[in-house]
Design brief:
single chain; 236 residues; mainly alpha; 2 strands; 76% helix; 3% strand
Amino acid sequence: MKYFNHFLGILCAFCLMILFLITSVEAVVYWIPGYFEAKYTKYGVAGTVDMTMEDLLDVTDEMMDYLRGNREDLHVPTVVGSAEREFFNEREIAHMEDVRGLFLAAIALRRICAAVCVLCVLILIWRKAPLAVLLPKMLCTGALLFLALAALLTAIISTDFTKYFVIFHKIFFNNDLWILDPRTDLLINIVPEPFFMDTALYIAITFAFLTLLLFFICMWMIRRNRKTSDKNTPKS
């Protein structure tokens, strides 16, 4: 029965890491004030697509709302150069439909992981497991394992970002709509590969921060439990 309790603790830790990862993605692209404007300025995107920064940011806001399911379509009229036009063409819209599906699936997965964490804790309470002792140990173990795996993947990806960026798309998309032409498709010009490299780095840093924060909190709880146990142990 002890092994089952440990399994529940590790499962809780694993789901929490998935939750942290998805939240890290959301935090970087949605919660950092002025993130897109800073990156557009860094890479001269407004000049590349011949748009004002204001119009470019308006298009970006509509795109990000669409990805979260807060907008029904991606028909976004704007001004490029001196001409009014739809920002996204048919191929870009089709690809962004796939990206939206990925975003919404990730949000659903986060909710499932949160529910599993709560369920694991409730089962442990029902089984009268020593929650204050067991859970910090399992969360520490799970956090270290997941962080080590994430560090390994980061090290591998950093050796050739382009190669693994392509592999990522081949894994998560079952078509070639993600292969865009910078001569005809504006989307690839507003989010060039260096943009994704920066974003991946920020996501990795955010995830590492959340995971290490959990780890140190759990370590503090483990040490506190040990001190309490030592005080309550009769000395011979």
